[in-house]
């Protein structure tokens, strides 16, 4: 809340340079802000009495938006890439999919490794367990296991997270 939107009778006033002015009536605080061609901004409305600061509100909002934009630019969005294996996967297919897992981990993405069972393959879930254990061992230098292999419906799923550099 700024200027006339503030509804308290008294406010604890902080000056434009950050100095403590003290508890003042709202009218007097508004007049002091107007004399400096600045705004009275309520920075802590839950305090007793509310804390208000004399500042250029437009400039303050502009700087806040710049900081938020900079923070968004610097953050890394972690994607989850999924790699499907089959219970009776051939060695060459396995190596190709393993290369993809390593590539995704090096790029900083999490990898969801799934073994999909079709038909009666579900009776041999231990084969899927062995495939995921083998993947985990071969990419151990690049990743850590975020979620152990677990059977969910007709798929066995394991999630790998990249190791921090």
TrEMBL record:
<dbReference type="InterPro" id="IPR001288">
    <property type="entry name" value="Translation_initiation_fac_3"/>
</dbReference>
<dbReference type="InterPro" id="IPR036787">
    <property type="entry name" value="T_IF-3_N_sf"/>
</dbReference>
<comment type="function">
    <text>IF-3 binds to the 30S ribosomal subunit and shifts the equilibrium between 70S ribosomes and their 50S and 30S subunits in favor of the free subunits, thus enhancing the availability of 30S subunits on which protein synthesis initiation begins.</text>
</comment>
<dbReference type="InterPro" id="IPR019813">
    <property type="entry name" value="Translation_initiation_fac3_CS"/>
</dbReference>
<keyword id="KW-0648">Protein biosynthesis</keyword>
<dbReference type="GO" id="GO:0005829">
    <property type="term" value="C:cytosol"/>
</dbReference>
<comment type="subunit">
    <text>Monomer.</text>
</comment>
<keyword id="KW-0963">Cytoplasm</keyword>
<dbReference type="InterPro" id="IPR019815">
    <property type="entry name" value="Translation_initiation_fac_3_C"/>
</dbReference>
<feature type="domain" description="Translation initiation factor 3 C-terminal">
    <location>
        <begin position="78"/>
        <end position="163"/>
    </location>
</feature>
<dbReference type="GO" id="GO:0016020">
    <property type="term" value="C:membrane"/>
</dbReference>
<dbReference type="Pfam" id="PF05198">
    <property type="entry name" value="IF3_N"/>
</dbReference>
<keyword id="KW-0396">Initiation factor</keyword>
<comment type="similarity">
    <text>Belongs to the IF-3 family.</text>
</comment>
<dbReference type="GO" id="GO:0043022">
    <property type="term" value="F:ribosome binding"/>
</dbReference>
<dbReference type="GO" id="GO:0032790">
    <property type="term" value="P:ribosome disassembly"/>
</dbReference>
<dbReference type="InterPro" id="IPR019814">
    <property type="entry name" value="Translation_initiation_fac_3_N"/>
</dbReference>
<dbReference type="GO" id="GO:0003743">
    <property type="term" value="F:translation initiation factor activity"/>
</dbReference>
<protein>
    <recommendedName>
        <fullName>Translation initiation factor IF-3</fullName>
    </recommendedName>
</protein>
<dbReference type="InterPro" id="IPR036788">
    <property type="entry name" value="T_IF-3_C_sf"/>
</dbReference>
<feature type="domain" description="Translation initiation factor 3 N-terminal">
    <location>
        <begin position="2"/>
        <end position="71"/>
    </location>
</feature>
<dbReference type="Pfam" id="PF00707">
    <property type="entry name" value="IF3_C"/>
</dbReference>
